[in-house]
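Budget justification aside, the reviewers requested a transparent look at the raw inputs and outputs of the sequence design task funded under Objective 1. We therefore reproduce one unedited record. The lines immediately below are the structure tokens for a 453-residue chain.
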């Protein structure tokens, strides 16, 4: 039975928490102060989890936390306080507390913190810091096909159209193709076609002559000229206006262009790659994208898979991204708990690799030491769950949060064939909490409805 020690100088709260956690199946011990707990020897053989107030007579919660960090560094501690300020929060979290709960106590939040804290002892995965620093990562069949495409496409100077959802790494692939080509020592220049208005984009691409517009005191070279014999990557190509599409078509067909405000015809020797996260064929059908330009761009097509299509690549991606994040932040992350990694693998990642990197960056900043735990992924806000699992609404009035929770738990139980261990893993809760929710919602396995207790 999981042993829980609660320390608080409020008798009513102490009794309420004692009753609550005993009902949840914990072996609960209580004390009204840190000094009382120490004198009674309740910390000599440390419990599985300590929940403590921060301001108490005698030794306060922060002093107790410092002592425990030195004597029992593996003991997870949750701090409670009615004085919820930045200084106390920072002191508690830097002191090693796994969570900081304000008073009056939100019992659901405290339950979640207890469940998460007790998962801290899940196996830790050591990150491999000696992996090759490749811009493309993965062992899935989908990524194997991308590697093959990069190798093949790099052997020619054909125009490439890279498609895929936002955040899948389309520019990364373009750079990989360039680096694998014989032009790797030539420039690689990128421009976002959606980031500039038409006039600025034309100047950015083709340059301008002196006096072409107000403030053009000298001529300026555009990126087409600057790319020389290297690569020019046009991101979000679908956002080009129809007039700019015509000018780009001329560049691709005749390899000719003129700087803004000039009649001089210049030639380009650059290789062109383009990327989009929309279906250009639909744009063509709707008259918003030139069909002739589409075919000029789509000489070689490379489709980047969404991250949800290759979940087996997530552990390897995590290693590579954390290594990069460690370099950028100066904070070395060497380990991640299996619970945290499981959470990452199960997520749908609508934002793809970019979203994964952002989540890991936040977790690395919030983590203590060189380890990322599941709690680091849930603070300050949880990873979004699958909308199908969370938004269980029918036509009409929306369901309450409690009803959504009931529906979600029942759905996972059915999916796992009422295997409670697997259900706990998917939901990220303890067995005790799952059992409590099953009783509370009156859930029963199929075939047992209507039977007596």
């Amino acid at each position: 039975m999981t042993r829980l020690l609660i320390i608080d100088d409020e008798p009513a709260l102490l009794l309420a928490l004692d009753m609550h956690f005993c009902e949840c199946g914990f072996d609960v011990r209580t004390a009204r102060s840190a000094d009382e707990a120490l004198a009674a020897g309740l910390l000599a053989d440390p419990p599985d989890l300590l929940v403590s107030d921060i301001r108490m007579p005698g030794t306060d919660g922060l002093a107790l936390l410092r002592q425990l960090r030195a004597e029992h560094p593996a003991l997870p501690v949750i701090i409670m306080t009615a004085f919820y300020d930045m200084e106390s929060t920072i002191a508690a979290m830097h002191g090693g507390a796994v969570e900081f709960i304000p008073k009056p106590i939100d019992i659901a939040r405290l339950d979640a913190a207890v469940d998460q804290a007790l998962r801290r002892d899940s196996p830790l995965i050591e990150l491999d810091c000696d992996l090759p620093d490749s811009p493309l990562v993965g062992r899935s069949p989908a990524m194997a096909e991308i590697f093959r495409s990069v190798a093949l496409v790099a052997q020619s100077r054909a125009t490439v159209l890279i498609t895929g959802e936002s955040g899948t790494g389309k520019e990364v692939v373009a750079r990989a193709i360039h680096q694998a080509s014989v032009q790797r020592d030539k420039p690689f220049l990128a421009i976002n076609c959606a980031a500039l208005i038409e006039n600025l984009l034309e100047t950015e691409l083709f340059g301008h002559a002196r006096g072409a517009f107000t403030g053009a005191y000298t001529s300026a070279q555009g990126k087409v000229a600057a790319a020389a014999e290297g690569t020019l990557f046009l991101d979000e190509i679908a956002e080009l206006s129809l007039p700019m599409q015509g000018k780009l078509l001329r560049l691709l067909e005749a390899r000719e262009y003129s700087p803004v405000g000039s009649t001089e015809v210049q030639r380009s020797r650059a290789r062109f790659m383009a990327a989009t996260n929309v279906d250009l064929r639909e744009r063509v059908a709707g008259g918003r994208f030139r069909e002739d330009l589409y075919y000029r761009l789509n000489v070689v097509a490379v489709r980047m898979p969404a991250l949800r299509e290759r979940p087996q690549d997530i552990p390897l991606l995590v290693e590579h991204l954390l290594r990069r994040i460690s370099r950028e932040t100066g904070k070395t992350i060497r380990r991640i708990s299996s619970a945290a990694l499981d959470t990452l693998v199960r997520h749908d990642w609508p934002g793809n690799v970019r979203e994964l990197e952002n989540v890991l960056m936040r977790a690395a900043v919030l983590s203590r030491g060189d380890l990322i735990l599941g709690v680091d992924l849930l603070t300050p806000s949880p990873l979004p769950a699958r909308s199908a699992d969370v938004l269980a609404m029918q036509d009409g009035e929306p369901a309450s949060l409690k009803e959504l929770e009931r529906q979600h738990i029942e759905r996972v139980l059915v999916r796992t064939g009422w295997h409670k261990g697997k259900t706990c893993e998917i939901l990220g809760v303890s067995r005790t909490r799952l059992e409590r929710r099953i009783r509370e919602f009156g859930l029963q396995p199929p075939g047992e409805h209507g039977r007596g207790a």
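The longest strand covers residues 271-276. Residues 3-121 form a domain with the Rossmann fold fold (CATH 3.40.50.2300). Computational costs for records of this kind are itemized in the attached budget.
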